[in-house]
Design brief:
Radius of gyration: 22 Å
Helix content: 40-55%
Strand content: 15-25%
CATH class of the largest domain: Alpha Beta
Largest sheet: 6 strands, antiparallel
Distance between the termini: 62 Å
Oligomer: single chain
Low-confidence stretches: none
Mean pLDDT: 94
CATH architecture of the largest domain: Alpha-Beta Complex
Order of helices and strands: HEEEEEHEEEEHEEEHHEHHEEEHHHHH
CATH topology of the largest domain: Aminoglycoside 3'-phosphotransferase, Chain: A, domain 2
Bound molecules: adenosine-5'-diphosphate, magnesium ion
Number of strands: 16
Number of domains: 2
Length: about 425
Amino acid sequence: MRLTEDLGAWVARQRWYAGKSHEPQFRILDARPVVGATRYLLMDDAGSRPTLYQVPLALAASPPAMTDAVIGEAEGGYVIDAARDPAFATGMLAEMGVDVRRVTGARVLAGEQSNTSIVFEEDRHPTIILKLFRALHHGENPDVTVQRALSGAGSPFVPRFLGSIDAEWPDVGQESGVSRGTLCFAQEFLPGVRDGWAVALDAVREGRDFTSAARDLGAAVAGVHGALAATLETVDAGAGDVSATATAWRRRLTIAASEVPAVAYRSDAIDAIYRAALERPWPRLQRIHGDLHLGQVLAVPDDGGWRIVDFEGEPLRPMTERAIPDLPPRDVAGMLRSFDYASAVGGGPDAAEWATACRDSFVDAYVRSPGSVALDPVLLNALVLDKAVYESIYEARNRPDWLPVPLAGIDAALR
Ligand SMILES: Nc1ncnc2c1ncn2[C@@H]1O[C@H](COP(=O)(O)OP(=O)(O)O)[C@@H](O)[C@H]1O
Ligand SMILES: [Mg+2]
């Protein structure tokens, strides 16, 4: 097979391929033998910034059931996506130091988005989940830094962390000539969980009260913030941090105002809140979730509690920015916006009241729970606005019918 061409064509078809808006230009940066496979690192040089993809390939004698896992044919069989190959998947677990003697199977979790998750069974029960990062970055992935710290601190609000694998690859952009980053990590698999988005949608559609779940979520987010402040670095918000945040808020607002007339019309009022927020006392900066919404929390059926996952930060932000201390109220703002979205998407006669009750309960429980950080109302409002401004850009570009949702959020925050 013509490896670069076939591999490039396959990568360009994957959900996790991030360069959908340009014609890809791939080259193989690195190829290394690993247990059961060869790990290819494929660079896409087209697009606004070069992106490196992790694509492990295995050889199979017969084509796997999943035909979209076939990359090409080679002498003696088929070249397949090694993530679908249990030998390779189990090899990664073993490399992390996980005891794999009882592992009896591995399968890729359906509905993958930006990464590929593999679920392992021990004695026929799913017990371990491995997240294979497809886009690689220099520096440890925050998903690993943060979940390992929380799990190590005994936090009851995250799945137990099991291990991770790093790798080095050539990078002319680094002084040393190499980059080092995270390939994958594994954690305890929680059977029977549903994500908070699905649970909340059911509740709003059926007109069911969700305030008790929202309260538990507030306590979980507070607990996570407390554990992160105790285990990872924190810094006072200096003038430089405040002005960097102001720049980020205003950059987004300028983009939104140029694409969404309704935002342009409210731009001065939004900026007035930003200015007021910049004058307020700020909490210490620390590691946070960074992209918190109902889709990132899992409801455990047995104990009714929440587990928080996916600490990778906002996908569109450069990785270097995602791994620095940030404002804990940003997570609170993310969840507040998510309740609004759930009520708008779910609908129902009392959707607006449902969202208000959830938001109030969530904030009330957050501030009363151990670990929470002071919530200045003006700063929180600015963070809610920034989130809604971001959503307005996203909706204008991708789902114009949904634009009224962030716009209503902006109007509510301005009142
Ligand atoms: N520890 C876990 N136990 C059970 N399911 C999980 C676990 N971690 C993730 N999942 C499932 O995988 C989905 C995506 O996980 P996430 O970490 O958010 O990855 P992504 O980066 O693809 O969004 C979750 O919504 C959940 O359904
Ligand atoms: Mg996620």
